[in-house]
Amino acid sequence: MEGMPVSMGGLRTLPWYVVGSQVLGVACVVITGVWMGHYHGGYAWDGSTQEFNVHPLCMVLGLVFLYGDAVLVYRVFRNETKRSVKILHALLHMMALIISIVGLVAVFDFHSAAKIPHMYSLHSWCGMLTFVLFFIQWLLGLGFFLFPWASARLRSWYLPLHIFFGLLLLAMSVGSCLLGITEKLLFNIMETYSRFTGEGVLANILGLLLVCFGVVVGYVVTREDFRRPPNPEEEALSVHFKTLS
């Protein structure tokens, strides 16, 4: 190992972090599905509590797992063309957006059918703020990077903001999920929660796994030697294309 560049040594650990993040992410989705399926009667689309169960599953799948994977693509696909990675990044975000919309429609539909007021809890405020900012971030990303109408100088100015808000939104998504988990437990098993019931323990484990997923993704994205290496040829082609345009 002596004489090996630090970045090369660090890159050897990248696949392990990526695999770990995927194990954590899939576990979060599976546990959410089991929680809603086993303890709350499964899934439906009829205004019942089974329709509400669609909400947590979609939000964990969309705004946490798929969103986190979209953040990771620039670290995982280091040698593919930047254009291809941009398209994958945007498509994963679009999948997360569609699934999240399904989750939001489910909870609003359930509240309307059950005559429950909308948007009164801290969880709903944080969750809606996260979704709106995510949608704005996605639109700005399309405009600045995938279909770049902006100048190279404007894109270079916005890129650090795009990266910062990308990580911030992942943290907000995880935080909103934690608020939702706590709210769901207090509504349903408040009297038995302190007795370490199976549902309470399962939900607590889900919360810890969500935090771990967010931490691993954040670490991979912010570690300097995991960054995608610059490609002067791609940058030159990009500048040339903008000049011709």
UniProtKB/TrEMBL annotation:
User: Do you know which Pfam families this protein is assigned to?
Assistant: Cytochrom_B561
Which cofactors does the annotated protein need, by name?
heme b
Main location (coarse class)? membrane
Topology term for the membrane: Multi-pass membrane protein
In which domain of life is the source organism classified? Eukaryota
The protein's GO terms of the molecular function aspect are: metal ion binding; transmembrane ascorbate ferrireductase activity
Q: Which reaction does it catalyse?
A: Fe(3+)(out) + L-ascorbate(in) = monodehydro-L-ascorbate radical(in) + Fe(2+)(out) + H(+); monodehydro-L-ascorbate radical(out) + L-ascorbate(in) = monodehydro-L-ascorbate radical(in) + L-ascorbate(out)
* Entry keyword set: Cytoplasmic vesicle, Electron transport, Heme, Iron, Membrane, Metal-binding, Translocase, Transmembrane, Transmembrane helix, Transport
Task: Report the residue ranges that make up the Cytochrome b561 domain in this protein.
Answer: 20-222
Q: One GO term of the cellular component aspect?
A: lysosomal membrane
Entry's transmembrane regions: 14-34, 54-75, 87-108, 128-147, 159-181, 201-221
**Protein localization:** Cytoplasmic vesicle, Secretory vesicle, Chromaffin granule membrane
Tell me, in a sentence or two, what this protein's role is: Transmembrane reductase that uses ascorbate as an electron donor in the cytoplasm and transfers electrons across membranes to reduce monodehydro-L-ascorbate radical in the lumen of secretory vesicles. It is therefore involved the regeneration and homeostasis within secretory vesicles of ascorbate which in turn provides reducing equivalents needed to support the activity of intravesicular enzymes.
Quaternary state and interactors = Homodimer.
Which PANTHER family does this UniProt record tie to the protein?
CYTOCHROME B561-RELATED, TRANSMEMBRANE ASCORBATE-DEPENDENT REDUCTASE CYB561
Protein name as annotated: Transmembrane ascorbate-dependent reductase CYB561
Q: What is the lineage of its organism?
A: Eukaryota, Metazoa, Chordata, Craniata, Vertebrata
